[in-house]
Amino acid sequence: MEIFERMGKHEHEQLVFWSEPEFGYRGIIAIHDTTLGPALGGTRFMNYDTDADAIVDALRLSRGMSYKAAVAGLNLGGGKSVIVGDNKTRNREMIFRAHGRAVESLAGRYITAEDVGTSPDDMEFVLMETEHVTGIMGRSGDPSPVTAHGVFSGIRAAAMHRWGSDDLAGKKVAVQGLGHVGYHLCQDLREAGADLIVTDIDDARVQMVVDDFDAAAVAPNDIYAVDAEIFAPCALGAVINDDTLKVFEFEIICGAANNQLARTRHGPAVDEAGILYGPDYVVNAGGLINVYGELNNWSPERGKRKATEIYATCLDIFELAERENIPTAEAADRVAIQRIRNVRHLNRSFV
User: Residues with catalytic annotation?
Assistant: First the structure.
């Protein structure tokens, strides 16, 4: 693997490797772009088949964070950490304190948070070594309501673009994944008058949503072919793929799950199928907005109000895609890249 070639392909600024063999810590921090502000992105703890796979994951995810922050209008850059190892280990303190020292070495260029395989408890260990960490217990709180509200705003924008009205009363929405975000999204949708068809691998979660919001339940693999106008994936990635595109009858796909497109080619494919796709990193930016609010001492109400702006952002992206005859996923990338470029050319004035 040619490291600098990989970094140069998407203009990454920095790639940091840190090792503490005594504690089993092997960490990689990727910083994509700090034009808008310090790079922010969570720490992913998992086993990788090779070190090259870990590097590629860090680079890919950090670029995604740059785009997410840029499209959301936040003054943050994109970064990501990966720790290579078994995330089920109970001996976590020294691993995450070592990670905190790695983060501290960047002197504020990178701010971390929890991600796959990590928890708020792990971030408490990171906090022992650096202040450049968010998602600490007792600060910004559960980001799920803000994330769900952003997704709800994206769905309303998609409805407006597709049908000329953002009224969801009587619309059938298929929701896949009923964790914290999925539950709160169902609440927003039901309050807006939508009819819900839901699924999850956890039967207890399904029953709770059925009871609370008068939803209809289907088996996990049946959700892709249900009769509904809108599909909101809030669990798995790669749900837009060759197999599911054959059975989709939805007019809109807009949900909280990350990396919904299995391959790059599925961006044009979903467009060719006549489905309006709300790019995932645009509509699920509420979690990042919540963290940004923590960094800037926002009230919960201000964070939720900022997430509502996802409505206007999605409309701009849909209109750009239609005007330029490009997939909405490509339009979202263009908006993100353009904001970064515009800010890069600004000069600050000092009195």
Answer: 80
